[in-house]
Every structure is written in structure tokens, then in C-alpha cells.
């Protein structure tokens, strides 16, 4: 068994945690893909018309993962005192979180604007079937090449209060600061598409309302990737990333979701 006393073990523990984190991110994307499936199709249709071999293998993989992680969780709790369940936040705390989120998006924009650049004409051509050209010419992008966004204090505090499943900013591909998109590593088209959907959402409902919908969506669904604003961005980006992508207007999609109060 590893020990923190042994310097070699400490290096191995860091390596182990980086592999654990990698596995967790892969699980998150599997969770997100399954969530999309549940949104689009009924359990009846999946069970009746889904390919049996694929369903069986998926169920086997999910239950093997569940067994493994549940056994680790049991061991973890046996070794640690039980923590209190996550308290429901007060309206005042919710209002604070909304104000914090909108000011964080404004400050991020100011901070990264000086090192940002416009999209290339080739990138504009790639995205113009989905977004107005004027918007694509206006936005700015910044690549941090691994320097990574810092973890905001409020997120750290919320985590301490027991809110898990919060967005993990330093490990997210990209973040939208109003009309500026920051990439922790390098720009990828799919992550840029996702962020551009957020940009259109902010334009459609306004920054304050966007922050409110995000915070309330998170409190309702308790996970970053089940917030409706995120679900929509993930699903439109996956339509864009299909081998034979269809053309559609993100603005129309967003306005429809906003009018139907799906956010
Ligand atoms: Zn997002």
C-alpha cells in the first residue's frame, strides 16, 4: 500500500490521481451521451428497437463500473466519518451565486481580451452554415495552451458545502466569457461550436438571465452537464460533429428553446 511518508509513493499517488481524473472525464462523457439518449428516446423504444448486442454490452459495462466504483465508495466511507447531506441553499445564496456568475463572465472577458484573436477566414467559413457571419467576425478566442483557468473561489466554497458535479473549470475544454471563448489547451472545432451556442444563448436571453438559468438549472438537476443550457449546447455540437453534418441555424434553435421555456 502507498504511504505519503515515502517520496516515491507520493509521485505514484500523483500519477494515480491523474489516471483517476482521466477515467472520470471519460465516464462524464459516457454519462452525457446516455443522458442525450434518454432525452431523445423512450425506454420502451430503446428496449424494443435498440440493437440487443449493443444494449447488452452497454448494460454489462455500466454495471461492472457501478460495482467497482461502489466498492471503492464503501471503502472510502468506512475509513472516513460520514459527512452531512448537502444543504439546500437559501434564496439569498442563490442570488449571490447568480451575481457572482455574471460578474465572473464579465471579468473573464476583460482579463483574456488583450491576448485574444479573431477567428480565421477558414474558421468563419466552417461555422457560417450555423451562425450569423457578423457574430463570427465579432467574437474573439484565446488559447491558454495548458496554462489553464484557475478554480474560482465560489466553486471551491460550493464544493466544500457538499455540491459535487460542479463544472471543473481547469479541466474543461473551453469557457465562454460573453463574446470571448477561452480554451484551456488548443482550440477544437467541436468545443468552439459548444461555446458559440452559449454565446448565442447569452445574446438571446441576456447575461443576467443566462446566469440565473444556469444556476437554477444546476440546483434543479445537480450536475453541470444536465443543466438545460448545457444539454442544448452538447446536443447541437454533436449534430455539428456528425460525419455528415446537417445545416441548421443555432439562433433559431436557441430562440425556440427560450420561447418554449426549456431553459
Ligand atoms: Zn457549456
Please, what is the average pLDDT?
86
Task: Write out the distinct hetero groups bound to the structure.
Answer: zinc ion
* Largest sheet strand order: 1-2-4-3
Q: What is the number of beta strands?
A: 4
Helix content: 55-70%
Distance between the termini: 48 Å
Strand percentage: 5-15%
Number of helices: 11
- SS-based structural class? mainly alpha
Query: pLDDT below 50 for ≥5 consecutive residues: which ranges?
Result: none
The number of domains:
2
Instruction: Tell me the overall shape.
Output: globular
Rg of Cα set: 20 Å
| Largest sheet, strands/sense/barrel | 4 strands, mixed
SSE series: HHHHEHHEHEEHHHH
Care to describe what's here?
The protein has 263 residues and is mostly helical. The protein has two domains: 7-79; 91-259, no CATH class. Helices cover 63% and strands 5% of the residues. It contains eleven helices and four strands; from the N terminus they run ααααβααβαββαααα. It has helices at residues 7-40, 43-49, 52-79, 91-112, 121-127, 133-138, 153-160, 189-205, 207-221, 228-240, 250-259; strands spanning 117-118, 140-143, 174-177, 180-183. A four-stranded mixed sheet has the order 1-2-4-3. Helix 4 crosses helix 9, helix 8 (189-205) packs across helix 9 and helix 8 (189-205) packs across helix 11. The radius of gyration is 20 Å and the shape is globular. The mean pLDDT is 86. Bound molecules: zinc ion. Zinc ion (ZN) is lined by residues 194, 198, 230, 233.
